[in-house]
Amino acid sequence: SIWVDNIVAISPVRTPALAWHPTPIDGADKVLWQSSLNWLPGDSAVSHNVYFGTTNPPPFVVNQTGTTFNPGPLDLDKTYYWRIDEVNESNPDSPWIGKVWSFTTQDALVRYPYLQNVTQSSVQVMWGTYDDETGSKLYWGSAPGDYTHSVSSVVFEDTGGYQVHTATISGLTPGEKVYYYLDAGPGTVGKDDSSYYATAAPSGNASFRFIDYGDTHYTPNAHLRISKAMRKHNPDLVLLSGDIASAGQVWQFDDYLFTPDAALMKNTPYFTAIGNHDLPFPIASSYEHDNYRDMFSLPTNSANGTEDYYSFDYGSVHFVSLDTELVLGRYKNAARAAEMTAWLKKDLAATKKPWKIAFFHKPTYLNEVGAAFRRIFEDNGMNLVFSGHIHTYDSHYRNGVTYITSGGANRRANPYRKGWPDYRIYGLRTYNFIVVDVTLNKLDIKAYNDDNVLFQELVVVPERTKPTSLPVGSSSSGIKAEGKLSK
Question: What separation in angstroms does the CA of 149 have from each of 24, 139, 153?
Fold first, then answer.
């Protein structure tokens, strides 16, 4: 055994006559499609019989003297088997039959396509590759199989060592739907598949549907249940109110969001807000937002030109995403928070949209968040506010503004916070997501659990009076209600 920095590495146990130390290692996953096979020779070997293929046992390919074998381009997402028999014709024990090793090749992508930053004339498509696939292109057209437009992606390397691609579908008319696919270097993704599509934002004050949810971190399986339920509602866009990762690491964004939500993100634009778990633990440098910013392509109309907070219009709604980490938490920054709240006042005063909806991570009933935002919301006609952070469902109404806490996309349901007990409408300790149907006359808000069971419906009207709460049947999964449905 060899000790390095208090970590013990066990030296491999080997039979001296056999080939050993295979690369890729036995059972390896996500092996690059251009990989060669390497091994260390047995002690008496003069040459090597190479067996390689997609069946077990693998077929014989070649006898060679070198210990590197190049199989040529490998198929994507395929398991291969290989074996090296050591040969020395002068030794009566030859050949020495080796062990069968296996590995599985990479998918075409490390991060499948997801839609970002939709406008009335364009939609951005992002994806991630293992290598610098500089030839990656996006193709789109009016129907699957009819791809009349193309554009090369813009590429940069994220802190996880992956290549992040962005390509823009442009020249669209409001509400136009197009179909796309990727040529991602080692393979294509989405070609002739009608589930790969993008739709431009509608014109004017059109009606539409969106979903809000939050806190995807920690439990991909629980999140996958939520994601499957959300897909049944066919939203036009999704709001995600933070805590996507658990400690701001690239792999966490992949495991906790991009993998479980891949089937929805490929055709539905996501707009996100920063949560405390989306930034590194412990406190990092001035570049603490880099991993989050690398993952997404969001509007940059904030006071400092970053994606940390922003606003955008969709249909009849003016949406605002805010960064509550500037006002409460490890990254609290009074100067930047003041800059954000000044920007918020101007932004809300300038919009002409009939509905104003905000989303961010930490709830307004927490003192510091309420002190920063509540009066601005009340004085500038805010209709609806979404937050996460607390892993439960809660709804409140205060001075013209309806507040919903939806932090229920992971396994850990929090006990209730006692904030604003006099303003509570209803609370339920359960996994949850929120579906909102938007028309000029009302916001119809429905709360569902992970079994897609409706457990509360609220109706918000433009006059900003207390929302009508419509009682519905209780949901399942051992949930616990707190508060009463208002009449």
Answer: 39, 6, 13
Those residues whose C-beta lies under 8 Å from the C-beta of residue 51, and which sit 6 or more positions away, are 57, 58, 59, 60, 61, 81, 82, 83, 84, 85, 100
Per-residue burial over 103-121, b = 16 or more CB atoms within 10 Å of its CB, e = otherwise: bbbbbbbbbbbbbbbbbbe
Smallest CA-to-CA distance from 273 within 249, 250, 302 is with 302
Q: Which residues contact 13 (CB under 8 A, 6 or more apart)?
A: none
What residues does 208 pair with on adjacent strands? 438
Cα–Cα distance for residue pair 257/227, rounded to 1 Å: 10
Q: Please give the pLDDT value at position 417.
A: 64
- For the residues of 260-316, what is the DSSP string, one character each? TTHHHHTTS-EEE---GGGS-SS---TTTTHHHHHH------STTSSSSSEEEEETT
Q: For residues 124, 125, 127 and 133, what is the CA-based torsion angle, rounded to 10 degrees? A: -90
pLDDT digits (tens, 9 = 90+) for 221-249: 788 889 999 999 999 999 999 989 888 88
Structural contact between residues 262 and 253, judged by C-beta atoms closer than 8 angstroms: no
Using DSSP's 3-state secondary structure scheme, residue 229 falls into helix
Reply yes or no: is the peptide bond before residue 24 cis, omega within 30 of 0: yes
* Coil, strand or helix at 421: helix
Tokens standing for residue 406: 């939806």
| Cα angle 245-247-253, degrees, rounded to a multiple of 5 | 30
Identify the pLDDT of residue 185. 72
Q: Tokens 């590197």 — which residue?
A: 68
CA distance 228 to 261: 8
Cα distance between residue 268 and residue 265, in whole Å: 5
3-state secondary structure of 9: strand
Cβ-contact 222, 412 below 8 angstroms: no
> What is d(CA 325, CA 154) in angstroms, rounded to the nearest whole number?
30
- Retrieve residue 397's tokens: 């109404």
Q: CA–CA separation, 152 vs 109, rounded Å?
A: 16
User: 């066990």: which residue's tokens?
Assistant: 10
Task: Look up residue 145 and give its two tokens.
Answer: 């199989």
Mean of pLDDT values over 367-391: 96
Angle at 473 between CA 469 and CA 477, to 5 degrees: 120
Give the whole-angstrom CA distance, residue 45 versus residue 186.
35
- The DSSP code for 153 is P
| pLDDT one-digit tens code per residue, 36-67 | 999 999 999 999 999 999 999 999 999 999 99
Q: DSSP string covering 408-464, please?
A: -SSS-PPPPP-SSGGGEEEEEES--EEEEEE-SS-EEEEEE-TT--EEEEEEE-TT-
Whole-angstrom Cα distance, residue 121 to residue 108?
Answer: 29
Whether 241 contacts 363, CB under 8 Å: no
Q: What is the pLDDT of residue 427?
A: 87
